[in-house]
Amino acid sequence: MSFTVKENSPLAPITGMRVGGKAKYLVFPRDTAGLADAIRRYKEKGEKVIVVGNCSNIIFPDSGFDGAVIVTSCVKGIALRSGVIVAACGETLSSLARFAANNSLAGLEFCYGIPGTVGGGIFMNAGAYGGELSQRVRECLLLDPDLEEITLPVSELGFGYRKSVVAEKGYTVLSASFECENGEREAIFRQMDALMARRKASQPLEYPSCGSTFKRPEGHYAGALIEQCGLKGVSVGGAEVSQKHAGFIINKNNATASDVLALIKLVSETVYAQTGVRLEPEVRIIGAEG
Predict the structure, then answer these.
(1) How many domains does the chain have?
(2) Which helix (H) or strand (E) covers residue 279, if one does?
């Protein structure tokens, strides 16, 4: 079989926030063919199917997922073809940045330290420190909802702030190609190290989290608004608004998904009441998608 399966398996250990119940099936494809095969088989069984990467930006409910959670973290492969980097969906964004640097290619330094995968990054147009994947993507190989392979150029990927056509149309990323500029290897690595140092200094990396909890509202910064409203350090159960960076909700002490979701709601409602600004979650909340 081109994938392995665990039944009635806990989701918390594979998620960034370390919360969530059990999946009816936890499926690990070995390659892109196995990914397509797994999606097809579980859909034919009538099961709900969700495809995820590192689950670094996903919150599953405490009730878990009554279907197949297909995890792409074993779908690896990265190569340089005619100056273009081609990476499989399960490659991490940090691995992508390191590969580019090792080949003296500049432009993906911002990816270093983002905990997601290439597939997840394309899904939400991941970015940091002024960079977004949309700036470097050339094209993507996708599965459409009928499990047909299609290739879309960047102009047809519908990238926006933390969104893409992949999320909107139910596509599954198989691989993506990236265009960079020639650079000086040591300088590229120095920039990556500098960005990582900024992350460690400003973000609560010592606790489980989903990274930035909220999208950046136009004209504002979510963390600044949350701090302005006196919410730094506020907690619900084991979930806490980080005292190091108010834009992060962390799993401080064995939080449940319900704790995290209740705190997201509390923060959103308080910020809106005090500032009139609506905060939209950047994290993907499973069970809130209809």
Answers:
(1) 3
(2) none
Catalytic residue among 56, 268, 282, 284: 282
Q: Is residue 225 part of a domain?
A: yes
Annotated active-site residue 162? The verdict is yes
Ranges of the chain with pLDDT below 70: 288-290
Q: Which of the following is catalytic: 212, 240, 242, 268? A: 212
Among the listed residues 162, 175, 177, 240, the single catalytic one is: 162
Contacts of 119 (CB under 8 A, 6+ apart): 51, 53, 72, 75, 89, 90, 172, 173, 176
pLDDT of residue 198: 95
Last residue of a domain, one of 27, 46, 71: 71
73 belongs to the catalytic site: no
- Catalytic annotation on 209? no
Cα distances (Å, whole numbers) of residue 68 to 47, 65, 155, 200: 7, 7, 32, 35
Final residue before a domain boundary, out of 27, 43, 71:
71
Query: Which structural domain, as residue segments, surrounds residue 248?
Result: 204-285
Q: Residue 290's pLDDT is what?
A: 40
